[in-house]
Amino acid sequence: MTGLTAELVVDGRDPRTPALAPDGRLLCYVLAPATRTGDHLDTELWLVDTDGVVASRRATADTATESRPRWSVDSQTLFFLSDRADRGTPQLHGLTLADGTTTTLTSWHGGIIDHLPLTDPNLVALLAEDEPTEQDAQRARDRDDAIVVGESEPRVRLRLLDLRTGRVTTPDAFGDRHVVELRQRPDGGPLAVLTAASADNDYGPRTGQLHLFDPTTGAAENLGPVAADARSLAWWPGEDGWHLGYLALTPPMLQAGTALIDLAVENRVLRNRTAGLPMCPTELCQTDAAPLVVFADGLNATLARLGPTDLMPLSHHPGRLDNLTATPGGEEIAVLTGTRYQPANVHLGPPTGPLRRITNTRPELDGIALGTQQPLAYHAADGLELDGLLVLPVGRSASEGPFPLVTIVHGGPYDRYADRLQLSWSPSAQWLAAAGYAVFLPNPRGGQGHGQHFAASVAGRVGQQEWTDILTGIDLLIAEGIADPDRLGIAGWSHGGFMSAWAVGQTDRFRAALVGAGVTDWGMLAATGENGQFEAALGGSTGWSGIGPHPHDAVSPISFASQIRTPVLILHGAEDTNVPLGQAVYLHRALRHFDVEHEFVIYPREGHPIRERQHQLDVLHRTCAWFDRWLRL
Question: Domain Peptidase S9 prolyl oligopeptidase catalytic spans what residues (predicted)?
């Protein structure tokens, strides 16, 4: 067995977005590096014969960013996006399997955002922004580029590409609305078109509407508003006619987890098909009959079929199931999944299981020594059932404790730790286990995997019961002799960064903390973050809610900065629009004011996640160095 290095963590390549051909014989997936070394992320398309006779092979040979593979109905053409001709500007391409030729199908200024091959073999639906007019070009030359908010915002529109002529037309069907997603009815009928009032992440997700569009006649019909943040459209036939389903935030709240909404198209009856379930839908996959639904189910995943009145569980899987794709009849599926000690790969099989692995994109991790990972189940102070994971130091057993313990809180908060390999560029369990730490990965209330009530319980109350849920787990590990109470650390990214900042303002029990892209002031985040209304629902108020103090002040870490004594490492991307850099600057200035030991690192060109290789390496090395400095006695 060999040891884990930072280079092994960041230099791998991961499969993404598998696409199973309608005839089930071929599967295409995107192979993407885990990190970026230049200005562009160079990805590749790979093909796999599902019968396993022929090994995986590259579908294309160019250096480019290739994405969104989609098959023609007859399985003879693979459509995909590539920026091979003009880096950063993706165009639609078609790979003809019969002769292996690849053809560039569009030359749209600004590029194509998404596409959907239709049942009419001559048509492909496109999503793209408007091309600039001559007036736009002249204004750019004159630097007359003032941005009028609400007027200058780009809109993505539905276009139709005629493969016979190469002509792209733009139906005048949805006014000035921004098109989000498309799905054609399985029988070749109309398109379901999801639109929003704008592309603004704060405003758009709350303004969704669902439409029907006939690509042959151009006729359109508005089916009315949809729940916030709708996505993952799917059609299916029912006794009362066609149904349209989608996933969305549970109405009417913005922080109550995800629900599966069922719309009967003919009579406009809406139903929440997942109300009261103790698990959470994550993906909806259309087939010719009833759609398939992936659920986050505690630490694991459940695959089910949506019936007329109920959900029929088909199979259960450890960890996660992501990017589900299926043949039209739903007899065969492909999905990304892994194990506790193996990264996610493409797996194939019937929806009832078992699934067999058909890719191995990280062979360099074979033989690497990893820490033992085990699920935890315990009860919160109020009796609520909770779960999480414990990862022990590499080569050590629980009986050899107590160990220095780092608790890493997940983001979201609507996310979760699943029972899968915990290894990434961000503060991750296996990276710290390789350095000799035990790592606790809690799933406190507010997260995914335990139903809508569990998820909704933190709205307006962040840092309250979710914090005591985490403390209860730490105390359990101390009582069991696994964690050393004098060598505790806490870390997290995004909402996990918030919890880390919150923790050190509530207690001096931690000897060191890492706040990665963390929230320090909920009012400021609601005002400046790209998801302001969602953040306001979490924090409980906004700065314009009248004269303060406001409810969000009581749950903002910055309000407790005078109580912080724990050394804090602050890491943040300079171009983060999700949790803007000002959140980190605020904490840094407060800690400097109160003379608290801390280190503040800003990563240029980075957004909410860190993408560049050297920056990811820095995060990994700096994380270990920080905890080594304070937790090694």
Answer: 427-631
Partners of 77 in the beta sheet? 96
| Element of type H or E holding 624 | helix 613-631
- Other C-beta atoms lying within 10 Å of the C-beta of residue 187: 11
Of the candidate ranges 7-11, 106-110, 152-156, 411-415, the one whose mean pLDDT is the lowest: 152-156
CATH of the domain at 490: 3.40.50.1820
In a domain, 602, yes or no: yes
Quote the CA–CA distance of 411 and 430 in Å, as a whole number. Answer: 18
Number of domains the chain is built from: 1
User: How many other C-beta atoms are found inside a 10 Å radius of the C-beta of residue 86?
Assistant: 12
Rounded-to-integer distance, Cα 54 and Cα 57, Å: 8
Closest CA to 154 of 134, 135, 127, 173: 127
pTM: 0.96
Q: Could you identify the residue written with the tokens 């400097």?
A: 592
Q: What is the pLDDT of residues 570-584, one digit of tens each?
A: 999 999 999 999 999
Q: Are 292 and 305 in contact (CB under 8 A)?
A: yes
Domain range for 477 is 370-631
What pLDDT does 633 receive? 65
Residue 8 has pLDDT above 70, yes or no: yes
Q: Is there a contact between 388 and 376 (Cβ–Cβ < 8 Å)?
A: yes
Angle between helix axes 495-506 and 465-479 (nearest 10 degrees) is 70
Quick one: what percent of the chain has pLDDT higher than 70? 99
Please state, in angstroms and as integers, the Cα–Cα distance from residue 507 to each residue in 146, 415, 587, following that order. 48, 25, 17
Q: Would you say 632 and 29 are in contact if contact means Cβ atoms under 8 Å apart?
A: no
Amino acid residing at 126: L
Handedness of CA 579, 584, 586, 587 (dihedral sign): positive
Asked whether the predicted pLDDT for residue 1 surpasses 70, the reply is: no
Angle CA(277)–CA(279)–CA(283) in degrees, nearest 5? Answer: 110
Domain annotation covers residue 380: yes
> Is residue 331 situated within a structural domain?
no
Q: What is the pLDDT of residue 153?
A: 82
Q: How many C-beta neighbours within 10 Å does residue 129 have? A: 17
Domain presence at residue 506: yes
